[in-house]
């Protein structure tokens, strides 16, 4: 009995403690790279490499993935379909009159752009490196390419296939693990009546961590309501402080300088934002708009304050206890996310294709908005204590900075401060005691 108790306590602790890169809203989030050895042919072999974005609400935006790995020996890539190596490298050891596509020890492979020459294409290729989240577009969350590789010459083993190492997705924030061999992938043939399979299949799992991507937030939240005229702005310096050494921004009465647009494979440019107290490229505004007898209405506006980026395939994840009673969402797509089954307090919003799935650069059209109707559930609903405001918001998977709860717009004459004060006094006393000790 005792051991069982201790063990279950131990597992409980493990499941509560956050592990590396772990997101409780999407506990299995990963990008998987699958390496299918398709055929061996004397001195060369063919591989099909696939990338799958198994994340509910994080996507790979322009400039896209740049997959790299380290060959164990002196392999070289003769040819690639559906992607290309950024550098050919030093191929001087090949004397046959034809040079390989890439002889780098650490090749960097990028996707082809849409509309690539037909003879260079491959199934599911050519999306400029963009992978949408699994939720948003079932046709765009994967990518694949095929390559023909010159086998390594290793004395003891002869000419063999050896799995390369050190995979890297080339996208900020992701770390990939070591390849591990899995059961061979099966491919449907003859209208699914027959299946063929790879000779060997290896998986590599890559995981995202916001802390690895950037320490500074990229988004903040402001709040307002129909029952109180105060607008609670984003917290001061949420993302940066105006005027702090080296920060650049565009004053509200100025137009931004003419900027050179980034080229397809360039790194993402540093944000250039509209000057504000928070300096965030993205601001989310939550407005409690109206109260009806059985429903209440919320308006959400996402504003792009960045002059150098259009956010394609953006998404917003919101945590609010009343989301379990969402009745209608206007002009956005909505999907409840509930990894733990019973609790429906989290949902994901994203744009409607060709209508508002692109959040344009800062300016008059640089915003998207929705309204939603929520059913008042008498057991939980209240306008008091800031209950009608979100608990947590993230934009494109990165958490937004929220105003502190004690600043939320208050109902006129609410008992708010009365209930809060004893708690504060108690806390200060506690602090004092700790300090004295
Ligand atoms: C390997 O990745 C594929 C997707 O690419 C997935 O279907 C399969 O389940 C993975 N295998 C393991 C053992 O994780
Ligand atoms: C990656 O995500 C998929 C889909 O959620 C999941 O089935 C798979 O187990 C995950 N892989 C790992 C190694 O967590
Ligand atoms: C290219 O590789 C060969 C050996 O394969 C080496 O002798 C030569 O120095 C290399 N050239 C450069 C410019 O690195
Ligand atoms: C954003 O999209 C608009 C309209 O398609 C385009 O005119 C603009 O140059 C784009 N801006 C950036 C930074 O890519
Ligand atoms: C609650 O979650 C279930 C299961 O995911 C879903 O079918 C249902 O639509 C959700 N309800 C609301 C109001 O989001
Ligand atoms: C709100 O959702 C909960 C859980 O799904 C349900 O039990 C409750 O009846 C709903 N309330 C209203 C007013 O629809
Ligand atoms: C509106 O909310 C603010 C911030 O919580 C509060 O200071 C103010 O007293 C409220 N206004 C009214 C009329 O209650």
Automatic annotation (TrEMBL):
Residues 218-409 form the COBRA C-terminal domain. Its main location: membrane. It is found in: Cell membrane. Residues 1-21 form the signal peptide. Transmembrane segments: none annotated. Belongs to the COBRA family. This is COBRA-like protein.
